[in-house]
Amino acid sequence: MVVVLIGPGGVGKGTLAKCLVELDHHLWLSRSWTTREQRPSERGDEYYFVDRATFERAIEEGTFLEWAEFHGNFYGTPLPSPERDADVILEIEVQGAEQVLQHHHDAVVFLILPPSMERLEERLRVRGDDDDHVADRLQSAPYELEKGHELASYVVVNDDIERASGEIISILEELRRQRRDLPTKD
Ligand code: 5GP
């Protein structure tokens, strides 16, 4: 199963994804590539931070399952290679989610919503983004939300990380049960 988390920047997708892989050992978190600068608040293992030339070469070499340009930087998911028979979880923006759905029609897309737009802005500022970045991301939030509603199978409000991850895990467990029970071809 391919699981995709989408939602506006600052909604907490990254924290949610990390929490999900800790709680659900069937999940394998993909690590994306990006050309954006590492934030002072980041440890360095959030992404493979690369320069533009390296990213462009990787595009040509067919490294990515999907990639997109977002606010002037490239982001891409390398073709997944989970160590075991795991469900892959991706935390990406909406253009990438559209590409994933083209390859994997049965990917399960969760749109993550903030409890309010005020909380979203607060979270963006806490992350250490400068004012221009915060403004850019808030400006693209309505598009991410509109497109997100089109693509998502489930909508989850990230009001509390434990509650939201519990809701997602219950849905995934139910989907696994349903997919196991499906008659297979032959
Ligand atoms: P940030 O710069 O805040 O870490 O990420 C900006 C946006 O890019 C977020 O919405 C994040 O989910 C998305 N993103 C992160 N990795 C990928 C990726 O591999 N592909 C795509 N399409 N978007 C990504």
| CATH C-level name of one domain | Alpha Beta
CATH homologous superfamily descriptor of one domain: P-loop containing nucleotide triphosphate hydrolases
Please summarize the sheet with the most strands.
5 strands, parallel
- Reported by name, the CATH topology of one domain is Rossmann fold
Can you tell me the CATH architecture of one domain?
3-Layer(aba) Sandwich
* Morphology: globular
Bound molecules: guanosine-5'-monophosphate
Please state the CA-atom Rg, rounded to the nearest Å: 16 Å
Report the mean per-residue pLDDT as an integer. 94
Instruction: Give me the count of strands.
Output: 9
Order of helices and strands: EHEEEHEEEHEHHEH
Walk me through the structure.
With 186 residues, the chain is of the alpha/beta class. The protein has a domain at 2-30 and 85-181: P-loop containing nucleotide triphosphate hydrolases (Rossmann fold). The protein has 6 helices and 9 strands; from the N terminus they run βαβββαβββαβααβα. Strand 5 and strand 6 form a beta hairpin. 30% of the residues are buried. The model has no long low-confidence stretch (mean pLDDT 94). Bound molecules: guanosine-5'-monophosphate (5GP). Guanosine-5'-monophosphate binds next to strand 5, strand 6 and helix 3.
Features:
186 residues; alpha/beta; Rossmann fold; five-stranded parallel sheet; four-stranded mixed sheet; 6 helices; binds guanosine-5'-monophosphate
